[in-house]
């Protein structure tokens, strides 16, 4: 049996203080038919006013597209979850709406574990997963489990602003990992940690990364670079937190349209789809030093508020202790409905859904890039077509702005001028500076700025209009 290394030395003082809840420990007897359970404040399920919840969804293999409306039995999945006597593999409402099951309901955990084994093939044995209410909550729980106020954490040079705010509110400090078009640069991070000044405090024990379809840059770390980063983690002995809500929004490579409409990509087999996915950090994690944050938010719906953490069992136990006195468990309705859907689709049907998403996002990404080519002057800008995620970025040379000198050669003033002009023209893209990591020794902004847009939130006609208006604003600002 291959076991993970012991990383309990990285636990925060708060995590070390957490003891198992005596009340929660009694729940192991809840389903014992020989025990009359009088120990918990559990309302009788007879008084739950929900006898049945029904949802209608498209059915695999989604031959009419994942956005096709269910019309008849042949292309409809009916999820009908009952309070009692639920179908095999479902989570009954009497169970899901009750207290308990902090880790998540066994039926859903079993599906997610099978899914994880299928996709990632984790190279050690004592790993597991627990449900969460999404990756934002997972990240908050991770910080509380491994960090003390005043600690440093490593984050990407530009990253998800809410992740930064979560850490800032816990009085943490940041080390910005330099990036290029392929994400974090391993040699640069190695150099920072090798030259770490002990006067700043202890070295960081966490690297937070959004490695696939990164928010905001849209970059994705290639497999070989992930392996290099893992070696840096081993050398400097820190944990990697891979936040992967966009992992299954990986796309076919961008091919210029040359003015002609492109056909949708040919459907992939399950084997081809899985082989095409970039290698995850947890699939190369021989030590058990990777904590993977997964979510249904971007592949089913954000409002289900249902995610899961994959990690070695010893570390997950600390998360469970935290969840027992915070979230308690993920929503029962969400667990019942999502598991009901996955139970009917099966692993193969869920892969069909993810393959369908790949096709849809490839089309939207291609459309967005083609619109940028048509509407944003290449003489003052450049872009890198994303291979995953929901976001695209357009970079601008601030030195070519006519008021660059008048602005005191301040790139942020050029950025704000473009932002305000785009709003006047009726388009909103987010300035890249809003995502800048506030590291103590962060380099100043250089000659290039960027704006982040998304191709996921609006129909194609609105996407084209928004990029056209943004291009018009850029032309006005640069006098083109």
Can you put this structure into words, describing what you see?
It catalyses: an aromatic L-alpha-amino acid + 2-oxoglutarate = an aromatic oxo-acid + L-glutamate. Its EC number is 2.6.1.57. Pfam families: Aminotran_1_2. The chain has 480 residues and is an alpha/beta fold. It folds into two domains: 8-34 and 102-357, Type I PLP-dependent aspartate aminotransferase-like (Major domain) (Aspartate Aminotransferase, domain 2, 3-Layer(aba) Sandwich); 363-478, Aspartate Aminotransferase, domain 1 (Alpha-Beta Complex), CATH 3.90.1150. The chain is 35% helix and 15% strand. It has 13 helices and 15 strands. It has helices at 13-17, 22-25, 93-96, 106-120, 135-146, 161-168, 186-194, 223-236, 270-276, 313-324, 332-375, 411-425, 460-478, and strands spanning 52-58, 76-82, 127-132, 152-156, 173-177, 179-180, 183-184, 206-209, 239-243, 290-295, 307-312, 381-383, 391-397, 430-431, 448-454. The chain has a seven-stranded mixed sheet, with helices on both faces. β4, α6 and β5 (173-177) form a beta-alpha-beta unit. The longest helix has 44 residues, at 332-375. It is globular and about 80 Å long. The mean pLDDT is 93.
């Amino acid at each position: 049996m291959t076991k993970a290394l012991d990383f309990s030395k990285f636990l925060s003082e708060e995590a070390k203080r957490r003891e198992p809840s005596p009340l929660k420990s009694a729940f192991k007897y809840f389903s014992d038919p020989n025990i009359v359970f009088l120990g918990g404040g559990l309302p009788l399920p007879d008084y739950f006013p929900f006898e049945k919840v029904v949802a209608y969804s498209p059915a695999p293999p989604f031959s009419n597209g994942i956005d096709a409306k269910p019309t008849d039995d042949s292309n409809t999945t009916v999820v009908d979850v009952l309070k009692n006597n639920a179908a095999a593999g479902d989570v009954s409402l009497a169970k899901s709406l009750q207290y308990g099951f902090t880790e998540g309901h066994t039926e859903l955990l079993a599906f997610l574990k099978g899914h994880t084994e299928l996709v990632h093939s984790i190279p050690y044995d004592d790993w597991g997963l627990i449900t969460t209410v999404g990756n934002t909550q997972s990240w908050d729980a991770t910080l509380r489990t491994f960090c003390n106020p005043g600690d440093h954490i490593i984050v990407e040079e530009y990253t998800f602003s809410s992740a930064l705010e979560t850490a800032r509110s816990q009085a943490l400090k940041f080390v910005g990992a330099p990036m290029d078009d392929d994400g974090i640069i391993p040699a640069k991070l190695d150099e920072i940690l090798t030259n770490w000044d002990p006067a700043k405090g202890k070295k960081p024990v966490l690297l937070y990364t959004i490695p696939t379809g990164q928010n905001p840059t849209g970059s994705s770390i290639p497999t070989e670079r992930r392996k290099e980063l893992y070696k840096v983690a081993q050398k400097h002995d820190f944990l990697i937190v891979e936040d992967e809500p966009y992992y299954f929004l990986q796309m076919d490579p961008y091919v210029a349209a040359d003015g002609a409409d492109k056909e949708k990509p040919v459907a992939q087999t399950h084997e081809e789809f899985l082989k095409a996915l970039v290698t995850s950090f947890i699939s190369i994690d021989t030590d058990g030093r990777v904590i993977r944050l997964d979510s249904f938010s971007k592949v089913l719906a954000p409002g289900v508020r249902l995610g899961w953490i994959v990690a070695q069992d010893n570390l997950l136990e600390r998360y469970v202790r935290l969840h027992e006195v915070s979230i308690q468990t993920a929503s029962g309705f969400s667990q019942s409905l999502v598991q009901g859907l996955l139970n009917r689709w099966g692993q193969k049907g869920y892969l069909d859904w993810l393959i369908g998403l790949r096709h849809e996002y490839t089309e939207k990404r291609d459309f967005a890039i083609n619109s940028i080519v048509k509407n944003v002057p290449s003489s003052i800008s450049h872009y890198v077509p994303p291979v995953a995620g929901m976001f695209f970025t357009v970079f601008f040379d601030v030195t070519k702005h006519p008021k660059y000198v008048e602005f005191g050669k301040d790139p942020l003033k050029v950025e704000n001028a473009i932002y305000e002009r785009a709003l006047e023209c009726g388009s909103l893209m987010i300035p890249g500076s809003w995502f800048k990591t506030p590291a103590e020794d962060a380099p100043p902004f250089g000659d290039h700025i960027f704006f982040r847009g998304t191709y996921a939130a609006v129909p194609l006609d609105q996407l084209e209009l928004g990029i056209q208006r943004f291009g018009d604003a850029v032309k006005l600002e640069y006098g083109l």
